[in-house]
Amino acid sequence: MSRLSDLINLDLGQTTTKIIVEYIWIGGSGMDLRSKSRTLPGPVTDPSELPLWNYDGSSTDQAPGNDSEVILRPQAIFKDPFRRGNNLLAMCDCYTPAGDPIPTNKRFNAAKVFKHPDVVAEEPWFGIEQEYTLLQKQVKWPLDWPVGGFPGPQGPYYCGVGADKSFGREIVDAHYKACLYAGISVSGINGEVMPAQWEFQVGPVTGITAGDQLWVARYILERITETAGVVLSFDPKPIPGDWNGAGAHSNYSTKSMRSDGGIHVIKKAIEKLGLRHKQHIAAYGEGNERRLTGRHETADISKFSWGVANRGASIRVGRDTEKDGKGYFEDRRPASNMDPYVVTSMIAETTILWKP
Amino acid sequence: MSLLTDLINLNLSDCTNKIIAEYIWIGGSGMDLRSKARTLSGPVADPSKLPKWNYDGSSTGQAPGEDSEVILYPQAIFRDPFRRGNNILVMCDAYTPGGEPIPTNKRCNAAKIFSHPDVAAEEAWYGIEQEYTLLQKDVKWPIGWPLGGYPGPQGPYYCGVGVDKAYGRDIVDSHYKACLYAGINISGINGEVMPGQWEFQVGPSVGISAGDELWVARYILERITEIAGVVLSFDPKPIQGDWNGAGAHTNYSTKSMRNDGGYEVIKKAIEKLGLRHKEHIAAYGEGNERRLTGRHETADINTFLWGVANRGASIRVGRDTEKAGKGYFEDRRPASNMDPYVVTSMIAETTILWKP
What does the pLDDT read at residue B1? Predict the structure, then answer.
């Protein structure tokens, strides 16, 4: 296939100033990523320089057939790791022709929360630990698991190395570099407790950027698994039984929490989150009740708890934060299929704006 | 898969100063290697400049779930042969949040021994001959061996060449170059007596670096076998019967042994080792009794004996050393699954510090 690769890897910069921009958006289910590309006359350095566009919302369950145009507004740009050169990825959100956000547009409300002066003043930082599972394409069974059977029990796989302990590292490593190339703040990766399950972390990033970067990181991952012929799953409990689920633990801090005395601000914030546990859980991802059982390093979905270094709690505070008297905390409740626009803005809203 | 390869091989130095550091540690069994990666803001050459990190010890049998953080202290840096560029591998050891080495941390004690002034003055050199076996992934049977059967008896395979005599050379050769690239002092390789079994040597290395280099060489080997879809085994007697086992013969010398009159120092050291034979054997690897039978170029596990050019002895002194009156000797007792921190520091302790 080397002639196809030669063409895919053509450096157009030699022959034209035109660039290709891939417009990315979230479809009607709230988890399906969509994209299409267009040619622009020259390099672009700011999203505001990109034209608005539109797509067929009736094909993504986001508009009726007789009034199908949904408007795409570019919000964040990244270097395209697949086309490279001056080509870009553009993360967009969706509006009616009249200019209103469509119902599945969760970014719009999140952006409002992050523009609130009280929230802006607190410079909320997020670090999201995105877990995911790789599945064989023909059967919905994890990569390198024997078909019709199971691998040996969990134990050897967390951060494991070796052909019998690590399944799919190629995909993970390609994703890491592709994201760094794109300009996404990927802070690390690791193999997870269940074999064929992996995690990458995005952050620390401020405010609305967390959602933009996580969605584009997910998009890049889905493009890479597409190339590898492997299916990407964000299901929070892909295999029932004695197998870990997949989460999107969200680490969070504000300016006050990062300053001296921050540990008290943290404890107050955790209290407020405890008072709104049900509301947060409802927004933290579909199917989470299959995952948050109180076993497999989770807290039971109906109970709110927190603790230092405690991986069985809803919220975990790291030993470093406890020792320094300031820092950040980890909300372990969000499922792998959560919407980061929703989760990040809700955490900021509850802890900064909401009064009990 | 060349699109994946393009991404894995991206040279990020063109677009960012950021580097990726793979932190490596030893898990709860004392032989399982674990690793995860993080992004750093720029190149780092000194381990003391790397941040401490932590991992989920409850997933590696090293901490309870409600107090799961284990702290990683970076101890040695090597160039990453997989990610290349300015990216690095970091060998770490593991501590409690209170700063105590956890029970499986054998490096801490070894480092103490090597820091002892009497030991430091003697500049202990080590050359470790790491043997290992390559197994087919889906059945635990050596590569190249017929399923349900055996290859022809041992004889043609030691340093052999040819498709019917050498199984897995591409793994061995890529490992050799990868280790040299990484900055590991790998001194040679050879095909072993049992087909599917190989050996590489690390050394001469001084003091604690022998352990660091051997562990990272093992890590690189396990990453390479992972890519090759082959299982790496450090079992000391992988196949019962008339098939060689796998050892980690440890060559050793001190300044006094390397100087004129060193042969007498060597003989005294061997005497001391003989007086502590049982203690050393207990620390020289699990399952060694299946290997040290007195046959297949080993000495019986209960017998301590030494001899010049004698491969059936516990300790062998080379003819060169005998002729020159100075040099080094080879402890042939350690099994392939020994911990080099334990073995190297114990040999130094017994021969330099211990008084009968």
Answer: 60
Confidence at residue B2, expressed as pLDDT on a 0 to 100 scale: 74
A125 to chain B, closest Cα gap in Å: 17
**d(Cα B209, Cα B212) in Å, to the nearest integer?**
5
Interchain pair A180, B97: CB under 8 A? no
The chain B residue lying nearest A230, using CA atoms, is B1
Averaged pLDDT, B85-102: 96
Report the predicted TM-score, pTM, of the whole model to 2 decimal places.
0.92
Helix (H, G, I), strand (E, B) or coil at B202: strand
The stretch B60-82 carries a mean pLDDT of 92
Strands B315-317 and B306-308: parallel
Nearest-neighbour CA in chain B from A71: distance (Å)? 32
Chain B residues whose beta carbon lies within 8 Å of the beta carbon of residue A294: none
Judged against a pLDDT cut of 90, whether residue B91 lies above it is answered with yes
Asked whether the beta carbons of residue B67 and residue A297 sit closer than 8 angstroms, the reply is: no
